[in-house]
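User: Some background: our group keeps a shared notebook of sequences we're curious about, and every so often someone picks one and asks for a predicted structure to add to the entry. Today it's my turn. The entry only has the sequence so far, pasted here. Could you supply the structure so I can complete it?
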Amino acid sequence: MLQMAGFSQTIGNSHVTVIKNVNPQPTQGYGGIWGWTASNGKEFVILPSANGGVINFWDITGNNVNNPVSMGTLPNVKSEWQELKTYDAPNGKSYCYKISDVTGDDIYIINITPMATGGAPVMVKKFSNPGGTNIGKTMHTLWIDAPKKLMYLNGADHGSSATQGKGLLIMDITDPENPKQISRIGIEAHDSFPFGNYLYAQGQWSHFQKVYDVSTPATPVLKSTIDFCNYNATIGEPAATAYGGATTPIAHSVVTVDGHYMYYCEETVGSSVKVFDISDPANQKIVARLPMLKDGKRPVIAHNPFIDPANPRWLLIAGYTAGMHLYDLQNPAAPVEVAYFDPSSATVDFDGIWGAYMNFKSGVYALTDMTNGLYLVKPDATVIPTTAGYSKGFPQFAITGFDSKQIRFSLPKADAYDLSIFNPMGESVYSAHGNADGGMQTLTLDHGNLVTGNYFVKVRQDADSHTATISLRN
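Assistant: Of course. Here's the predicted structure to add to the notebook entry:
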Protein backbone atom coordinates (compact mmCIF):
# COMPACT_ATOMS: atom_id res chain seq x y z
CA MET A 1 0.00 0.00 0.00
CA LEU A 2 1.34 3.44 -0.91
CA GLN A 3 1.54 6.05 1.81
CA MET A 4 -0.51 9.23 1.51
CA ALA A 5 1.07 12.07 3.46
CA GLY A 6 0.83 15.83 3.89
CA PHE A 7 -1.82 18.24 5.13
CA SER A 8 -4.16 20.79 3.60
CA GLN A 9 -4.28 24.51 4.25
CA THR A 10 -6.16 27.76 3.76
CA ILE A 11 -4.80 31.04 2.40
CA GLY A 12 -1.95 32.28 4.59
CA ASN A 13 1.19 30.70 5.90
CA SER A 14 2.59 28.44 8.56
CA HIS A 15 6.20 28.67 9.80
CA VAL A 16 7.12 31.05 6.94
CA THR A 17 8.13 34.71 7.32
CA VAL A 18 7.24 36.96 4.38
CA ILE A 19 10.07 39.46 3.95
CA LYS A 20 9.02 41.37 0.82
CA ASN A 21 6.60 41.33 -2.11
CA VAL A 22 7.62 43.15 -5.31
CA ASN A 23 5.21 43.47 -8.23
CA PRO A 24 6.88 45.66 -10.89
CA GLN A 25 4.52 44.78 -13.77
CA PRO A 26 1.19 44.26 -11.95
CA THR A 27 -0.93 43.96 -15.10
CA GLN A 28 1.39 41.63 -17.00
CA GLY A 29 1.76 38.44 -14.95
CA TYR A 30 4.80 36.23 -14.34
CA GLY A 31 6.14 32.74 -15.04
CA GLY A 32 9.47 31.19 -14.08
CA ILE A 33 12.07 32.58 -11.67
CA TRP A 34 15.69 31.83 -10.84
CA GLY A 35 18.57 33.13 -8.75
CA TRP A 36 22.33 33.54 -8.79
CA THR A 37 25.03 33.87 -6.15
CA ALA A 38 28.15 35.69 -7.34
CA SER A 39 31.64 34.58 -6.34
CA ASN A 40 31.74 37.46 -3.81
CA GLY A 41 28.61 36.09 -2.08
CA LYS A 42 26.11 38.62 -3.41
CA GLU A 43 22.66 37.18 -4.10
CA PHE A 44 20.45 38.08 -7.06
CA VAL A 45 16.94 37.24 -8.29
CA ILE A 46 15.92 37.17 -11.96
CA LEU A 47 12.23 37.34 -12.89
CA PRO A 48 10.75 37.82 -16.39
CA SER A 49 7.30 39.31 -16.73
CA ALA A 50 4.95 37.14 -18.75
CA ASN A 51 3.39 39.75 -20.99
CA GLY A 52 5.25 42.92 -20.13
CA GLY A 53 8.26 42.42 -22.36
CA VAL A 54 10.74 42.84 -19.45
CA ILE A 55 13.28 40.72 -17.55
CA ASN A 56 13.83 42.02 -13.98
CA PHE A 57 17.12 41.72 -12.07
CA TRP A 58 17.42 42.46 -8.32
CA ASP A 59 20.17 42.42 -5.69
CA ILE A 60 18.77 40.92 -2.47
CA THR A 61 22.08 40.66 -0.59
CA GLY A 62 21.96 41.38 3.16
CA ASN A 63 19.57 44.20 4.01
CA ASN A 64 18.65 44.56 0.33
CA VAL A 65 16.26 41.66 0.86
CA ASN A 66 13.97 44.11 2.64
CA ASN A 67 13.94 46.42 -0.37
CA PRO A 68 15.44 44.68 -3.43
CA VAL A 69 17.77 46.87 -5.51
CA SER A 70 17.09 46.84 -9.24
CA MET A 71 20.13 46.01 -11.36
CA GLY A 72 18.23 47.04 -14.46
CA THR A 73 15.91 45.31 -16.92
CA LEU A 74 16.26 43.81 -20.38
CA PRO A 75 13.71 43.59 -23.19
CA ASN A 76 11.82 40.33 -23.35
CA VAL A 77 9.34 38.51 -25.55
CA LYS A 78 5.75 38.41 -24.32
CA SER A 79 4.80 34.91 -23.19
CA GLU A 80 2.98 33.26 -20.30
CA TRP A 81 5.64 30.51 -20.27
CA GLN A 82 9.12 31.76 -19.37
CA GLU A 83 11.89 29.71 -17.76
CA LEU A 84 15.53 30.46 -16.99
CA LYS A 85 18.66 29.03 -15.39
CA THR A 86 22.07 30.45 -14.44
CA TYR A 87 25.52 29.04 -15.18
CA ASP A 88 29.00 29.82 -13.83
CA ALA A 89 31.05 29.07 -16.92
CA PRO A 90 34.66 27.88 -17.32
CA ASN A 91 35.58 31.22 -18.92
CA GLY A 92 35.15 32.97 -15.56
CA LYS A 93 31.88 34.63 -16.51
CA SER A 94 28.36 33.82 -15.34
CA TYR A 95 25.32 33.63 -17.59
CA CYS A 96 21.56 33.45 -17.51
CA TYR A 97 19.86 31.36 -20.21
CA LYS A 98 16.21 32.28 -20.73
CA ILE A 99 13.69 30.51 -22.96
CA SER A 100 9.98 30.93 -23.71
CA ASP A 101 7.13 29.03 -25.27
CA VAL A 102 6.62 31.51 -28.10
CA THR A 103 6.85 30.59 -31.76
CA GLY A 104 9.92 32.18 -33.31
CA ASP A 105 11.72 32.91 -30.03
CA ASP A 106 15.27 31.74 -29.32
CA ILE A 107 17.53 31.25 -26.30
CA TYR A 108 18.46 34.51 -24.57
CA ILE A 109 22.11 34.41 -23.45
CA ILE A 110 22.70 37.08 -20.81
CA ASN A 111 26.02 37.94 -19.16
CA ILE A 112 25.15 38.53 -15.48
CA THR A 113 28.77 38.79 -14.25
CA PRO A 114 28.72 42.64 -14.04
CA MET A 115 26.00 42.54 -11.37
CA ALA A 116 28.55 41.23 -8.84
CA THR A 117 30.28 44.60 -8.88
CA GLY A 118 27.21 46.79 -9.26
CA GLY A 119 26.90 46.73 -13.04
CA ALA A 120 23.94 45.91 -15.22
CA PRO A 121 23.32 42.57 -16.96
CA VAL A 122 24.26 42.47 -20.64
CA MET A 123 22.35 40.72 -23.41
CA VAL A 124 24.98 38.73 -25.31
CA LYS A 125 22.74 37.37 -28.04
CA LYS A 126 19.63 35.47 -28.98
CA PHE A 127 20.82 32.03 -29.98
CA SER A 128 19.05 30.11 -32.75
CA ASN A 129 21.23 26.95 -32.86
CA PRO A 130 22.84 27.32 -36.29
CA GLY A 131 23.75 23.96 -37.78
CA GLY A 132 21.47 22.07 -35.38
CA THR A 133 17.78 21.33 -34.88
CA ASN A 134 15.64 24.43 -35.22
CA ILE A 135 14.87 25.73 -31.72
CA GLY A 136 13.16 28.86 -32.94
CA LYS A 137 9.75 27.18 -32.69
CA THR A 138 9.51 27.58 -28.91
CA MET A 139 10.98 25.82 -25.88
CA HIS A 140 9.08 25.03 -22.70
CA THR A 141 11.67 24.35 -19.99
CA LEU A 142 15.42 23.94 -19.56
CA TRP A 143 17.93 22.50 -17.09
CA ILE A 144 21.69 22.91 -16.82
CA ASP A 145 24.11 20.23 -15.65
CA ALA A 146 27.00 22.54 -14.75
CA PRO A 147 29.68 19.92 -13.93
CA LYS A 148 29.15 18.31 -17.33
CA LYS A 149 28.72 21.64 -19.16
CA LEU A 150 25.40 20.50 -20.63
CA MET A 151 22.06 22.22 -21.16
CA TYR A 152 18.82 20.31 -21.73
CA LEU A 153 16.08 22.05 -23.78
CA ASN A 154 12.63 20.52 -23.39
CA GLY A 155 9.83 20.97 -25.89
CA ALA A 156 12.23 22.36 -28.47
CA ASP A 157 11.66 22.09 -32.21
CA HIS A 158 7.91 22.47 -31.66
CA GLY A 159 5.33 21.83 -34.27
CA SER A 160 1.65 22.24 -33.48
CA SER A 161 -1.24 20.34 -31.89
CA ALA A 162 -0.44 16.64 -31.51
CA THR A 163 3.17 17.06 -32.67
CA GLN A 164 3.95 19.88 -30.25
CA GLY A 165 6.95 19.32 -28.04
CA LYS A 166 8.65 16.85 -30.36
CA GLY A 167 12.19 17.40 -29.22
CA LEU A 168 14.54 17.26 -26.24
CA LEU A 169 17.88 18.79 -27.20
CA ILE A 170 21.16 18.13 -25.38
CA MET A 171 23.49 21.11 -25.80
CA ASP A 172 27.21 21.49 -25.04
CA ILE A 173 27.82 24.83 -23.26
CA THR A 174 31.59 24.55 -22.86
CA ASP A 175 31.59 27.73 -24.95
CA PRO A 176 28.77 29.41 -23.02
CA GLU A 177 28.06 32.04 -25.67
CA ASN A 178 27.86 29.51 -28.49
CA PRO A 179 26.01 26.37 -27.37
CA LYS A 180 26.40 23.36 -29.64
CA GLN A 181 23.82 20.66 -30.14
CA ILE A 182 25.12 17.20 -29.21
CA SER A 183 21.99 15.14 -29.73
CA ARG A 184 18.21 15.20 -29.95
CA ILE A 185 15.76 12.85 -28.25
CA GLY A 186 12.57 12.70 -30.32
CA ILE A 187 10.03 12.76 -27.51
CA GLU A 188 7.30 15.18 -26.48
CA ALA A 189 9.25 16.58 -23.54
CA HIS A 190 7.55 18.96 -21.15
CA ASP A 191 10.45 18.93 -18.70
CA SER A 192 13.46 16.86 -17.69
CA PHE A 193 15.87 16.64 -14.78
CA PRO A 194 19.51 15.55 -15.21
CA PHE A 195 21.19 13.66 -12.40
CA GLY A 196 24.50 11.85 -12.56
CA ASN A 197 24.50 9.72 -15.70
CA TYR A 198 20.71 9.76 -16.03
CA LEU A 199 18.07 12.08 -17.44
CA TYR A 200 14.49 11.86 -16.13
CA ALA A 201 12.16 13.16 -18.86
CA GLN A 202 8.47 13.95 -18.48
CA GLY A 203 5.95 14.02 -21.31
CA GLN A 204 4.09 16.95 -22.83
CA TRP A 205 1.19 15.47 -24.78
CA SER A 206 2.24 11.91 -23.99
CA HIS A 207 1.73 10.51 -20.51
CA PHE A 208 5.14 9.16 -19.55
CA GLN A 209 8.21 9.42 -17.47
CA LYS A 210 11.25 8.11 -19.32
CA VAL A 211 14.71 7.48 -17.88
CA TYR A 212 17.70 7.83 -20.21
CA ASP A 213 21.32 6.91 -19.66
CA VAL A 214 23.17 10.03 -20.86
CA SER A 215 26.67 8.99 -19.80
CA THR A 216 27.42 9.44 -23.50
CA PRO A 217 25.32 12.53 -24.33
CA ALA A 218 25.63 12.00 -28.06
CA THR A 219 23.82 8.65 -27.80
CA PRO A 220 21.19 8.64 -25.00
CA VAL A 221 19.90 5.17 -24.12
CA LEU A 222 16.33 4.61 -22.87
CA LYS A 223 16.31 2.60 -19.61
CA SER A 224 12.66 2.59 -18.50
CA THR A 225 9.20 4.16 -18.99
CA ILE A 226 6.13 4.64 -16.81
CA ASP A 227 2.73 5.31 -18.41
CA PHE A 228 0.85 7.60 -16.03
CA CYS A 229 -2.55 7.49 -17.66
CA ASN A 230 -2.64 3.75 -17.06
CA TYR A 231 -1.12 3.99 -13.58
CA ASN A 232 -3.37 6.81 -12.36
CA ALA A 233 -6.45 4.87 -13.44
CA THR A 234 -5.47 2.06 -11.06
CA ILE A 235 -5.32 4.43 -8.04
CA GLY A 236 -8.39 6.54 -8.81
CA GLU A 237 -6.54 9.67 -9.92
CA PRO A 238 -7.19 11.68 -13.09
CA ALA A 239 -5.10 10.71 -16.08
CA ALA A 240 -4.68 14.20 -17.54
CA THR A 241 -5.61 17.86 -17.40
CA ALA A 242 -7.61 19.59 -20.10
CA TYR A 243 -5.66 22.75 -20.89
CA GLY A 244 -5.68 24.90 -23.98
CA GLY A 245 -8.09 22.58 -25.75
CA ALA A 246 -5.91 19.51 -25.29
CA THR A 247 -5.77 16.64 -22.83
CA THR A 248 -2.27 16.82 -21.46
CA PRO A 249 -0.69 14.93 -18.53
CA ILE A 250 2.44 17.09 -18.11
CA ALA A 251 4.91 16.95 -15.27
CA HIS A 252 8.15 18.03 -13.55
CA SER A 253 10.56 16.21 -11.24
CA VAL A 254 13.56 16.58 -8.93
CA VAL A 255 15.96 13.95 -7.52
CA THR A 256 17.47 13.61 -4.04
CA VAL A 257 21.23 14.18 -3.80
CA ASP A 258 21.95 10.49 -3.30
CA GLY A 259 20.05 9.56 -6.45
CA HIS A 260 17.74 7.23 -4.53
CA TYR A 261 14.41 9.08 -4.67
CA MET A 262 12.60 11.36 -7.06
CA TYR A 263 9.56 13.62 -6.54
CA TYR A 264 7.24 13.88 -9.51
CA CYS A 265 4.64 16.64 -9.91
CA GLU A 266 1.90 16.07 -12.47
CA GLU A 267 0.36 19.30 -13.69
CA THR A 268 -3.07 17.78 -13.26
CA VAL A 269 -5.89 18.78 -10.92
CA GLY A 270 -6.38 16.03 -8.36
CA SER A 271 -3.15 14.16 -9.04
CA SER A 272 -0.81 13.56 -6.11
CA VAL A 273 2.92 14.21 -5.97
CA LYS A 274 4.51 10.82 -6.65
CA VAL A 275 7.54 9.64 -4.66
CA PHE A 276 9.72 7.30 -6.73
CA ASP A 277 12.41 4.88 -5.67
CA ILE A 278 14.92 5.25 -8.53
CA SER A 279 17.85 3.42 -6.96
CA ASP A 280 17.59 1.18 -10.02
CA PRO A 281 16.89 3.61 -12.91
CA ALA A 282 15.83 0.70 -15.09
CA ASN A 283 13.10 -0.23 -12.59
CA GLN A 284 11.58 2.98 -11.18
CA LYS A 285 8.94 2.37 -8.51
CA ILE A 286 6.34 4.62 -6.86
CA VAL A 287 6.54 4.23 -3.07
CA ALA A 288 4.38 7.10 -1.75
CA ARG A 289 1.98 9.86 -2.77
CA LEU A 290 1.52 13.39 -1.40
CA PRO A 291 -1.90 15.03 -1.90
CA MET A 292 -2.19 18.65 -3.03
CA LEU A 293 -5.33 20.30 -1.61
CA LYS A 294 -6.59 23.82 -0.98
CA ASP A 295 -9.02 24.86 1.76
CA GLY A 296 -8.78 21.34 3.12
CA LYS A 297 -10.92 19.88 0.35
CA ARG A 298 -10.38 21.26 -3.17
CA PRO A 299 -7.83 19.31 -5.26
CA VAL A 300 -5.37 21.62 -6.98
CA ILE A 301 -2.15 21.32 -9.00
CA ALA A 302 1.40 20.49 -7.93
CA HIS A 303 3.64 22.33 -10.40
CA ASN A 304 7.40 22.50 -9.79
CA PRO A 305 9.52 20.62 -7.19
CA PHE A 306 12.92 21.86 -5.96
CA ILE A 307 15.73 20.62 -3.69
CA ASP A 308 18.71 22.77 -2.69
CA PRO A 309 21.80 20.58 -3.33
CA ALA A 310 23.68 22.39 -0.55
CA ASN A 311 21.00 21.65 2.06
CA PRO A 312 19.04 18.73 0.63
CA ARG A 313 16.92 17.83 3.61
CA TRP A 314 14.17 20.08 2.29
CA LEU A 315 11.80 19.61 -0.65
CA LEU A 316 9.93 22.69 -1.91
CA ILE A 317 6.89 22.29 -4.12
CA ALA A 318 5.38 25.24 -5.99
CA GLY A 319 1.69 24.40 -6.10
CA TYR A 320 0.00 27.16 -8.09
CA THR A 321 -3.08 28.28 -6.09
CA ALA A 322 -2.09 25.99 -3.21
CA GLY A 323 1.04 28.10 -2.70
CA MET A 324 4.47 26.90 -1.60
CA HIS A 325 4.89 23.70 0.42
CA LEU A 326 8.02 22.71 2.32
CA TYR A 327 8.68 19.06 3.19
CA ASP A 328 11.21 17.50 5.56
CA LEU A 329 13.07 14.64 3.86
CA GLN A 330 14.57 13.08 6.97
CA ASN A 331 12.84 9.98 5.65
CA PRO A 332 12.92 10.70 1.91
CA ALA A 333 10.51 7.87 1.16
CA ALA A 334 7.88 9.52 3.39
CA PRO A 335 8.20 13.34 3.24
CA VAL A 336 6.53 15.33 6.03
CA GLU A 337 5.13 18.80 5.31
CA VAL A 338 6.51 21.31 7.82
CA ALA A 339 5.62 24.72 6.37
CA TYR A 340 3.58 26.42 3.68
CA PHE A 341 2.90 29.86 2.22
CA ASP A 342 -0.23 30.56 0.18
CA PRO A 343 -0.80 34.16 -0.99
CA SER A 344 -3.36 33.37 -3.69
CA SER A 345 -7.08 34.03 -3.53
CA ALA A 346 -7.55 32.91 -7.14
CA THR A 347 -10.26 30.37 -7.89
CA VAL A 348 -8.79 29.25 -11.22
CA ASP A 349 -6.27 26.41 -11.28
CA PHE A 350 -3.44 28.07 -13.22
CA ASP A 351 -2.53 30.96 -10.92
CA GLY A 352 -0.55 31.47 -7.73
CA ILE A 353 2.97 30.16 -7.06
CA TRP A 354 4.59 29.07 -10.33
CA GLY A 355 8.20 28.46 -9.32
CA ALA A 356 10.92 29.06 -6.75
CA TYR A 357 14.63 29.43 -6.12
CA MET A 358 15.86 28.10 -2.76
CA ASN A 359 19.65 27.87 -3.18
CA PHE A 360 20.72 31.08 -1.42
CA LYS A 361 23.10 30.70 1.55
CA SER A 362 21.09 33.41 3.33
CA GLY A 363 18.20 30.94 3.59
CA VAL A 364 15.87 33.26 1.65
CA TYR A 365 13.48 31.63 -0.82
CA ALA A 366 12.49 33.58 -3.94
CA LEU A 367 9.00 32.68 -5.20
CA THR A 368 7.14 33.82 -8.28
CA ASP A 369 3.40 34.36 -8.08
CA MET A 370 1.71 34.55 -11.47
CA THR A 371 -0.35 37.56 -10.39
CA ASN A 372 1.50 39.12 -7.45
CA GLY A 373 5.09 38.94 -8.66
CA LEU A 374 8.12 38.25 -6.46
CA TYR A 375 7.82 37.02 -2.89
CA LEU A 376 10.93 36.80 -0.70
CA VAL A 377 10.26 34.48 2.23
CA LYS A 378 12.18 32.53 4.83
CA PRO A 379 11.16 29.40 6.75
CA ASP A 380 11.17 29.89 10.51
CA ALA A 381 14.23 28.72 12.46
CA THR A 382 11.97 26.26 14.27
CA VAL A 383 11.57 24.46 10.92
CA ILE A 384 15.01 24.94 9.35
CA PRO A 385 17.90 25.62 11.77
CA THR A 386 20.09 28.58 10.82
CA THR A 387 23.29 26.52 11.04
CA ALA A 388 24.85 25.29 7.81
CA GLY A 389 24.30 21.79 6.54
CA TYR A 390 21.76 19.32 7.83
CA SER A 391 19.99 19.52 11.15
CA LYS A 392 20.61 16.84 13.76
CA GLY A 393 19.34 13.38 12.97
CA PHE A 394 19.53 13.60 9.17
CA PRO A 395 21.91 11.28 7.33
CA GLN A 396 25.10 13.25 6.76
CA PHE A 397 26.35 11.50 3.68
CA ALA A 398 25.13 11.04 0.13
CA ILE A 399 26.56 9.71 -3.13
CA THR A 400 26.08 11.21 -6.58
CA GLY A 401 29.21 9.84 -8.28
CA PHE A 402 27.52 7.21 -10.41
CA ASP A 403 30.44 7.16 -12.84
CA SER A 404 32.84 6.54 -9.91
CA LYS A 405 34.66 9.80 -10.57
CA GLN A 406 33.09 11.84 -7.77
CA ILE A 407 31.59 11.41 -4.33
CA ARG A 408 29.31 14.03 -2.83
CA PHE A 409 28.66 14.09 0.89
CA SER A 410 27.41 16.50 3.50
CA LEU A 411 29.07 17.78 6.67
CA PRO A 412 27.09 19.17 9.62
CA LYS A 413 29.67 21.89 10.30
CA ALA A 414 32.86 23.52 9.03
CA ASP A 415 35.72 21.32 10.21
CA ALA A 416 38.13 18.56 9.24
CA TYR A 417 36.77 15.30 7.87
CA ASP A 418 38.01 11.83 6.91
CA LEU A 419 36.60 9.72 4.09
CA SER A 420 37.43 6.04 3.64
CA ILE A 421 36.40 3.42 1.09
CA PHE A 422 36.42 -0.29 1.95
CA ASN A 423 35.96 -3.32 -0.28
CA PRO A 424 33.40 -6.04 0.62
CA MET A 425 36.05 -7.81 2.71
CA GLY A 426 36.49 -4.74 4.90
CA GLU A 427 39.90 -3.80 3.50
CA SER A 428 40.67 -0.09 3.13
CA VAL A 429 41.21 0.72 -0.56
CA TYR A 430 41.00 4.53 -0.57
CA SER A 431 41.15 7.37 1.96
CA ALA A 432 41.02 11.16 1.92
CA HIS A 433 41.33 13.90 4.52
CA GLY A 434 40.32 17.51 4.20
CA ASN A 435 38.81 20.65 5.68
CA ALA A 436 35.53 22.03 4.40
CA ASP A 437 32.53 24.19 5.21
CA GLY A 438 29.32 22.57 6.38
CA GLY A 439 26.82 21.35 3.80
CA MET A 440 27.36 19.46 0.56
CA GLN A 441 30.89 18.64 -0.64
CA THR A 442 32.18 17.19 -3.92
CA LEU A 443 35.32 15.06 -3.85
CA THR A 444 37.01 14.00 -7.06
CA LEU A 445 38.14 10.40 -6.74
CA ASP A 446 41.64 9.23 -7.59
CA HIS A 447 40.73 5.61 -7.10
CA GLY A 448 43.55 3.97 -9.02
CA ASN A 449 42.69 0.46 -10.05
CA LEU A 450 39.42 -0.03 -8.20
CA VAL A 451 37.25 -2.38 -10.19
CA THR A 452 33.53 -2.02 -10.81
CA GLY A 453 31.52 -3.30 -7.85
CA ASN A 454 30.11 -2.50 -4.41
CA TYR A 455 32.08 -0.67 -1.71
CA PHE A 456 31.50 0.75 1.75
CA VAL A 457 32.16 4.47 2.20
CA LYS A 458 32.59 6.06 5.63
CA VAL A 459 32.68 9.77 6.37
CA ARG A 460 33.81 10.90 9.83
CA GLN A 461 33.88 14.30 11.47
CA ASP A 462 34.93 14.43 15.12
CA ALA A 463 33.09 11.60 16.89
CA ASP A 464 30.27 11.42 14.33
CA SER A 465 30.34 9.21 11.27
CA HIS A 466 28.09 7.76 8.62
CA THR A 467 28.61 4.71 6.40
CA ALA A 468 26.88 3.94 3.11
CA THR A 469 27.18 1.35 0.37
CA ILE A 470 27.99 2.59 -3.13
CA SER A 471 28.41 0.93 -6.48
CA LEU A 472 31.33 2.15 -8.57
CA ARG A 473 30.59 2.08 -12.29
CA ASN A 474 33.30 2.77 -14.84
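Suggested note for the entry: The chain has a mean pLDDT of 79. Residues 228-235 form the longest helix (8 residues).
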